[in-house]
Queue: 2 jobs
Job 1
Amino acid sequence: MIEDKNQQRTSLENLGEFGLIDHLTKNFDIKHKSTVKGIGDDAAVLDFKSKKIVVTTDLLIENVHFDLSYMPLKHLGYKAIMVNLSDVFAMNANATQVTVSIAVSNRFSLEALEDLYAGIETAAKIYNIDVVGGDTTSSTTGLIISVTAIGELNEEDIVYRNGAKPNDLLVVTGDLGAAYMGLQVLEREKEVFKVNPQNQPDLDLYSYIIERQLKPEARQDIVKLLKDLDVKPTSMIDISDGLSSEIIHICKQSKVGCDLYENKIPLDPQVISTCEEFKIDSTTIALNGGEDYELLMTISQEDFPKIKANPNLTVIGFITEESRGMHLVTRGESRIPLIAKGWNSLSDQE
Amino acid sequence: MIEDKNQQRTSLENLGEFGLIDHLTKNFDIKHKSTVKGIGDDAAVLDFKSKKIVVTTDLLIENVHFDLSYMPLKHLGYKAIMVNLSDVFAMNANATQVTVSIAVSNRFSLEALEDLYAGIETAAKIYNIDVVGGDTTSSTTGLIISVTAIGELNEEDIVYRNGAKPNDLLVVTGDLGAAYMGLQVLEREKEVFKVNPQNQPDLDLYSYIIERQLKPEARQDIVKLLKDLDVKPTSMIDISDGLSSEIIHICKQSKVGCDLYENKIPLDPQVISTCEEFKIDSTTIALNGGEDYELLMTISQEDFPKIKANPNLTVIGFITEESRGMHLVTRGESRIPLIAKGWNSLSDQE
């Protein structure tokens, strides 16, 4: 559909595992002093001296997390890195290294994997991270990508999920729901394409939401911004499963409640118009859509003057005592309990 | 075949991703001071102070790396950890943490995953490592396990693949080829079982080689032994793809050649008898069989007195100038070039 299928096609079989790793990673350079040894031994060797390190990992499975009929491989490589960096930034850390393992079936050509790694390389360049290891193996079916990301920070900068206090402000970066609505548009176009392969879709109206789905950016800029503003959040989490489930994580781990204001949730105009077109409630999408990769944090009221003028940060509610519970305050001013529908990849499966 | 199929069966669908992770990891305790924060946030937080850290990762895919018709899930969980720890020990490091991600289809029950995690927990206990993170997601087909292992060591203790020097001794731990022959026996029994499911196989004759396949141990003891003997290898690698391909890795990266003596390669009597039964040459199996998870190292001749009496270490050859090439010296004293057939999971696929 989007991908150009008329490419040269080199079979993987004769290249072998060692040749393949060497080939795919030969352009990857080392940027960090903390990377003592990258790809090429039994393990990478890292040196963080007095810094703390953070480690996070995610698995991406074809036809569960992505659909190659509309996800170009280069974008997929980029997104696989973003998904993991987002978790590093949610600790308020600086991302430094990743390992990338892939399993592929023989239906993938060398050129296809080169596209995937071009996306990984682009992400590594833009986000200044070293690719220090990985594993390349065969799969009996689709494509599987496993990324582990490592970051560094000083002890005093670590932000956990469990530090929110009553009266803290609930703050979110960027806008929400776009990635999910982008997915709805792509799914609809896939169905149209099945019926009429000659149809050339005009997706200009949906450019922002499709980009949010296919090429999300992790909020490295926010970690720097918070430092520049001299604000340390009391808690932080990245929004991968939808705002609602992430708020619940923070509240449960911090033993607090919250009031979230529906009319404060930041939505892009394209999300609003596409929700109208699909006859879906935009608040439901922002709460449960997932894959936004924005950051949700709580900030002490004292820090409000430092953040109030910043277009990247939106106050969407405040933290309460645990006994008050977790609520959405609707536009009609009724208080309804927050539920984590989230994006549950296990129950989504059937 | 080996696994007990008559178990309680709780469906994964209603449990959800968060419930599943919590449930499976609730018994995992933290043993290392370097683990500041384990499972439960966007990322684990680690603190290695002045130590260097090593990071390695591996993907295990159902029907590529394991066959559940004879691999009990508990053993599989154990083996998934061993495969990664082996790489940590091959750097001469102390393994400290792992992350474990799994993707499962709905054909797996909660009880099946509990078995898998029981194996992971057993490995973590015995090898004194902390499970600090992971991801649990659905798969459209089989079981996928991705493990990242982390270890620590002092800078002066790091052993790379590239430090072998001419006249160094080529030394291997344990014995070789058993895991591969264990696999051959299990594959044969699987075929017998297909024809006659009532057949109760007598596998006593093959107990050692089957255990080497189903429940390998990574050589943590060797890292300690080398320290106790005050021996630092000049190079080291773990034997996952077969002796031949690992020797070639060391020689290529160290820019040296080698003479490997066929009559010195350590073989267990069960490997020899099973090779005879299967009419396979045991040297070929030791060279190319794979999955031994022993360590191959090069040691300076000066250190020979320290290792010569040790039953865990066998001298199998010596390093030569690069121009001499890499050779196997056969029992008949002819010198034939070493070739890396190895265990190539990409070309093995078809």
Note: Confidence is low (pLDDT under 50) at residues 1-5, 343-350 of chain A.
Job 2
Amino acid sequence: FNTVRLAEFAWGLLEPEPDRCDFAWLDRAVDVLNAHGLRVVLSTPTAAPPPWLLAAHPDIAQVDEQGRRVGPGTRREACANHPVYQERSRRIVEQMAAHYGHHPGVIGWQTDNEFGCHDSARCYCPHCQAAFRAWLQEKFTHVDTLNRAWGGAFWGEVYTSWEEIPLPTRSRAQRNPSHLLDFQRFSSDVWRRYHAQQIAILRRRCPNHFVTHNLMGFFPDLNAYHLCEGLDFVSWDNYHYFGATPATVAASHDHMRGVLRRNFWVMEQQAGQINWSVYNPAPPPNFVRLKTYQAIAHGGDGVIYFRWRQARAGSEQYHSGLLDHAGRTTAGYEEARQIGAELQRLAPMLAGTAPRPKVAILLDYDSRWVLEEQPHNQLLRMNQPPDFVLPHPVLLMDREDEPDERFMTGRAWLAWQFLAPYIALWEDNIPADIVAPEADLTGYRVVLAPFLNLLRPAVVSNLRRFVQAGGALILGPRSGLKDEHNRLFTTPQPGPLTELTGSTVRFFDSLSPERSNELRWQESVTRMGRVSPVGFWAEVL
Amino acid sequence: FNTVRLAEFAWGLLEPEPDRCDFAWLDRAVDVLNAHGLRVVLSTPTAAPPPWLLAAHPDIAQVDEQGRRVGPGTRREACANHPVYQERSRRIVEQMAAHYGHHPGVIGWQTDNEFGCHDSARCYCPHCQAAFRAWLQEKFTHVDTLNRAWGGAFWGEVYTSWEEIPLPTRSRAQRNPSHLLDFQRFSSDVWRRYHAQQIAILRRRCPNHFVTHNLMGFFPDLNAYHLCEGLDFVSWDNYHYFGATPATVAASHDHMRGVLRRNFWVMEQQAGQINWSVYNPAPPPNFVRLKTYQAIAHGGDGVIYFRWRQARAGSEQYHSGLLDHAGRTTAGYEEARQIGAELQRLAPMLAGTAPRPKVAILLDYDSRWVLEEQPHNQLLRMNQPPDFVLPHPVLLMDREDEPDERFMTGRAWLAWQFLAPYIALWEDNIPADIVAPEADLTGYRVVLAPFLNLLRPAVVSNLRRFVQAGGALILGPRSGLKDEHNRLFTTPQPGPLTELTGSTVRFFDSLSPERSNELRWQESVTRMGRVSPVGFWAEVL
Amino acid sequence: FNTVRLAEFAWGLLEPEPDRCDFAWLDRAVDVLNAHGLRVVLSTPTAAPPPWLLAAHPDIAQVDEQGRRVGPGTRREACANHPVYQERSRRIVEQMAAHYGHHPGVIGWQTDNEFGCHDSARCYCPHCQAAFRAWLQEKFTHVDTLNRAWGGAFWGEVYTSWEEIPLPTRSRAQRNPSHLLDFQRFSSDVWRRYHAQQIAILRRRCPNHFVTHNLMGFFPDLNAYHLCEGLDFVSWDNYHYFGATPATVAASHDHMRGVLRRNFWVMEQQAGQINWSVYNPAPPPNFVRLKTYQAIAHGGDGVIYFRWRQARAGSEQYHSGLLDHAGRTTAGYEEARQIGAELQRLAPMLAGTAPRPKVAILLDYDSRWVLEEQPHNQLLRMNQPPDFVLPHPVLLMDREDEPDERFMTGRAWLAWQFLAPYIALWEDNIPADIVAPEADLTGYRVVLAPFLNLLRPAVVSNLRRFVQAGGALILGPRSGLKDEHNRLFTTPQPGPLTELTGSTVRFFDSLSPERSNELRWQESVTRMGRVSPVGFWAEVL
Ligand SMILES: [Zn+2]
Ligand SMILES: [Zn+2]
Ligand SMILES: [Zn+2]
């Protein structure tokens, strides 16, 4: 152990009353740790605004899609568009950064904590309503331009002023998909801007510290590429929850590495049971070691275990630590100690290394959002399990080795559609980067686009460049159907990529589960042979 | 093709600003269509109030049963009791009717669009609260009369003034069924009155045009017999969604024909995939032809395909058209063209024909509402699937030939109880009318009343007349239990029908699924033999 | 029949207008009953405030966890912290008690009706917010004491004034468990105090009448031991709903007897079908007799059948009575008459008897609440079924003889964990008391504590006394993990009970369903042999 993260929700302790900061306790903690040779990563504490702030401004709490005020008093309830929350956030970050900016024992910062967690990415309060209209005005300039881009004419959604545009709250009929997509982009942008303010303060006050943020792997609600602009590197929190498999975790590492195309940290690595999944078994022997080496193999430059000692109180009581509630060491502690010793020998060999795959997989947030909203087949959900397909999720556990077929078909089109090719590569030890569709593709021999449903102009030209330079591009189903405004192209699918494919889709079909089939891969393709389920969707060329 | 429907949600385009109407674009469309020999059916656009109206009067949006304001910006969100919405509706209908009332290329009108769709039949806003109290006062005159009719004494629901009567919003305990029934009748009546205003305007302004409305088959929330008073004929929108079968569609046609006891139109006939069901397969070959001929065989005098070209934008993007998003013709287009040619030959034989069945099945809305609210067995739901009985709805698809047993037992008591006898007749090619219990039953030899739970006095005398004239009346279970106020009769079931049946029910039973059984029909009854599931309910004579 | 209960929701009839009481109709009813030799138990009618009261004070209606006002107009909607409801409740109870306090035909009172029913135990309105803060202030005196007890530091939940403490409304992240526990204790205490006011009035006005309340068996939301302080005896309402078995009913009787450690009444004994379960079959022959004798065998001193005649109107229309809706006698009536005759012979033998078991089972409400909130395994729910484990509840019915395995594992950790040992005893005819953990344990040879997760200091000393006096104490899993503030002990499990067990838990595990096992009891332990499912949770010593 050589690094400790501190203070991620400590606003209430650091600023116990408005404008009165108390860093004494944290100074002491940092000093003690430094004295024992441990370096400190500090977090800005803005994920948990203090009780006095919400009591004084109850409307800092977000409003959900149904118009209900979110209950205050836990974390992540604050609206990033509320001016007082913004101002108070800036102030506490300034204060912390000023205090620790030149502290020799602090090496870097984690901004906030898990942006978007607990369904907090989108808020429907009056501040957000005003901000959304301003964002749209900045994007479209004229309301008629918006009307054309959104194409709401059929249901008479023709706006004559910005003030008429509603938030896409819960409605009776399905919302206009263009309206929804822009709201998701807006919401993602709100957090990007909120984040950028913190980064700017830290850069100014702490020129020698790194700045990172702890993401949540394949979390869908925020565009990770945008959110992480300006960070030194990406971190993420690696929990093996219900449904995770070694391959999904591998893919998460590769996505995290692909966000900035740089090595990453695991800011929270579970070292025992967690407390928030369907059930939370104690990991098997060597789990912590295995997880740590997997992270390193995928480009992890740092791994911090969460947490030191099991919390005695609060909602994470049942979350394990390196020490348990009674202060006893746990199995995870012993494994972490062993790793520490092993890494001392390995460090010289690992230093400065990074994966350099020849294959890239494109992960596009617009397309995720668009397909999640309009699967055209309720069995093809991007993120959420349709209950009726998974009556027995309990049967899906303990299948660490491969995604279960039912899991694939039900819970996650993302899993099936996106992870299936990843897993095929992973099983043959072919490393892959998972990157944005606008990323520089130079150097890759193969680029996979498993679900590039929506094409922004820059993506089209990027792929054209790649193919024209001799690269092999493999498109998955539903590619090239939507333009940047989430309208259907008026040309056959794959729209502007047709010049690259040379063929078009005659029509698509949304299939019943009884019309599923199996795809058998030849031995020569995958060494182990493999049967993949296919179904739910078909495209006829 | 000889007819086109236009403008069903075009309020925002027709009245882009308050009181400034713009008919130029629609004039042009009508003219172009007329120039090519196509006649036009216009819709009043009131199902989609324009953004400026909702922005100026946010409380036009309905309030749901939980007290939540419905999000504006799609369609069907308006409260029919809001005075401004009423006034603005009248005005735009007046304007359109005045403009097109004597247009030679317009042949008729569709009022609004699918009243009640998207769960919009009932609203719980203050305007509705006041209107409900006024409706009750008109019905009962004295509040004591209401107290007696509703029988709320046991829980102390004794009102001393109209102002004390709440809307039946979401409550902790189950609401008084008499209160609920009158609210459902009131809500249905609200839309009948709203509709009647439009019909009156169109009659006055457009004496040579027909007036119709597009219903949704067996849609439960509005009393179709009342809603369609004053129309020339009924139309309906025929979509083959998840769970539909040829027999359920046949029954829908017969119900639609039975509403006014007159031939009908199919105002929207799908010509390919839809976008809103569980999944949305491309129909098999000849589907569009088959559907069209089925409509004609059941008394359909007009069939309009929805829609001409797949919408590029908006929430119905994935809904197919005769042309696809890229402007290419679809399989549905080819079939529709073939039908057009065939019908030219068939038209002389079909003209003026109508089905004249000897069997009637009674469909009573009061009884639907009452049984849906108080099934006394959660497996007997009229309209909504109880999840726990249908964990695998996906297994139920692609069973075009007959209602699946699990579907029957779970999703729809209506299906089992109401459709089972219909299907038995349908399989033997015995046509049936589906009509109101007060309908003139002269000329029928057999009348089936599958679930006539509630008996209004006029229904009792109607059935007495029919039986005394020698007709055969077959009552299903749960018949004759409730009086017009939704109270239990104080005489044994079937209450006032006992003089016709000559026997009474000793007691009824609500059975567990394990106590289900099978009914085997003799060959002589149905040519094909048949096994029907029976269970969930029993009555001992 | 010798006793009748009356007036449990009759506020609207007894006080038809504010401050004008009308007891004439009730006088007449009591007189007629007395004239036929029947004694009367009266209920205070406060469970159903009259319409005029809610119309004048709409904010008497509770607010739910999501901030939604509960719809008025049924029953149990009133907030016990609303000053007007409190005042009006006191007044009507005073009036009734003054009127009937010395009536010779009235023998006793039932307070209110089924406190907590319809999810009414907890309210989130502004009155409750203020009352909760006052309750906390009384408990902790200083807000810093609360901060330490709740341990909210990790998420910065550090309060500087009572006004900052929110109600634990629906929040994004899981609430602090200490906050939640105190809110549940507070809510239970609110109803205890409300109840105490009624008891005090009745004691003062009706010195010769007994006072009781009708509980609902294992109902979880209110602490029955506290709620029933000051009653003469406990009553309860015995309905055989979906999932009940003879053993669960036996356990309910024993819990009801254990609340005050005194014989009890069954205030409502179903005599036929009920109307509110999943389905509601007519009971088999001799059901009513069997239920009545079971009650007597467990210490029931009175059994009243609900209800005399099936209600013609209102939401309980489908609930059976001794007479049906048409006034005919039912099977239940005949059985009740037979019992009446039999009891005349048996009464001399039964008079003054009471069960005196040598085994006690501890049922602790704090532990129920704590485990329900933090099962750490979603398959271990105390009260509510996790849908995904019970896709086929319909398969579980008609298993009167033993709790079904799937039922056990899914619906109710309470059932499995708490009832499993009870059932083992029950099958061997070993009677047991079900009592509070603070109850005097003198005289018991064995005490079972199936899930004593939270230990208050008084419980620890009580158990210490019992064991030191030679008693055998059997602890179930999860025992001794939490202190009185719902924090983890800083000593190994079972915390302060370790001195009694002599061993500690090394770690616990939350298991997947695939890691379940079977426990086979030897013949010598249970005469019949028995296989119990084990799983979901493990503790390694
Ligand atoms: Zn907001
Ligand atoms: Zn309304
Ligand atoms: Zn309250």
Note: Chain C touches chain B through 61 residues (CB under 8 Å).
